[in-house]
Design a protein that fits this description.
The chain is an all-alpha fold. It is globular, with a radius of gyration of 17 Å. The mean pLDDT is 86. One of its GO terms (molecular function) is DNA-binding transcription factor activity. It comes from Actinomadura decatromicini.
């Protein structure tokens, strides 16, 4: 269990890292710069985050916390399960694209990191909450609904890469996600 001051210190570190990444991507997240910006000693930073990728994963987790909070406060209102799932994904897209350098850093970290992350499972849970009824924790790992929600989260990740590369607009991504969701989530 962390004390309140440890929790606040960790939060300052993650916020400093996110701010740096939003201005210059992963390259701007130099550990020394993060520690200075967060007002902690470099050794303290390494105690919380043994590597830069551990820190990037923490920033990804923080972004997911924000998305989950947004979904809790304002659940998707679209009519059917595929439309609700796409609404969640497009809210995530718009949120990330407000800070394209941070979005690129987060996506790159997911692709390149050896650090274990729960990103896929958390996105799957969000999609299940939006598309299916009930608690996503009650959907077994081998349930087709969980498998197709995970596949849809993977499609969205690839679409984000295309957008970050300048090969797709938000409208194009939404159209492809709508087609994918309608085909994948037919029994949600």
């Amino acid at each position: 269990m962390r004390s309140r001051s440890q929790h606040q210190r960790r939060k300052r570190i993650v916020q400093a890292a996110a701010a740096l990444a939003s201005r210059g991507g992963i390259e701007a997240m130099q550990m020394r710069t993060v520690s200075e910006r967060a007002g902690v000693a470099l050794g303290t930073l390494y105690r919380y985050f043994p590597s830069k990728m551990d820190l990037v994963v923490a920033v990804v987790s923080e972004e997911l916390d924000l998305l989950e909070g947004s979904i809790d406060r304002r659940p998707p209102r679209a009519g059917d399960p595929p439309q609700r799932a796409v609404e969640v994904l497009m809210r995530a897209t718009r949120g990330l694209m407000r800070e394209p350098e941070l979005a690129e850093a987060l996506i790159r970290s997911l692709l390149l990191s050896d650090v274990k992350t729960d990103f896929g499972e958390r996105m799957t849970g969000l999609l299940l909450r939006a598309a299916a009824t009930g608690d996503p924790a009650g959907v077994p790992a081998d349930d087709p609904r969980r498998l197709v929600a995970r596949a849809l989260a993977g499609i969205w990740t690839m679409e984000m890469i295309e957008m970050l590369r300048g090969n797709a607009t938000a409208e194009e991504i939404q159209a492809r996600l709508e087609i994918s969701a309608a085909r994948l989530l037919i029994d949600a």
